[in-house]
Task: inverse folding
């Protein structure tokens, strides 16, 4: 749960920065949000979740 909340916050910050700095149109951002919403209820959602959890586990296992 903590990973998904932090990932959502990170992605929200990226979208805000893209809208303000990179000239991302607000309509494009809305389309991306809707795409993510519908993608999360599709059959691909468990695969995407497993992929992001694997990436997070890989990053957390790196030792510096």
Result:
């Amino acid at each position: 749960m903590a990973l998904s909340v932090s990932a959502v916050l990170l992605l929200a910050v990226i979208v805000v920065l893209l809208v303000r700095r990179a000239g991302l149109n607000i309509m494009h951002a809305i389309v991306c949000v809707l795409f993510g919403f519908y993608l999360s209820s599709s059959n691909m959602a468990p695969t995407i979740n497993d992929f992001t959890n694997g990436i997070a586990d890989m990053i957390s296992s790196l030792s510096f």
In short: Residues 1-63 form one domain.
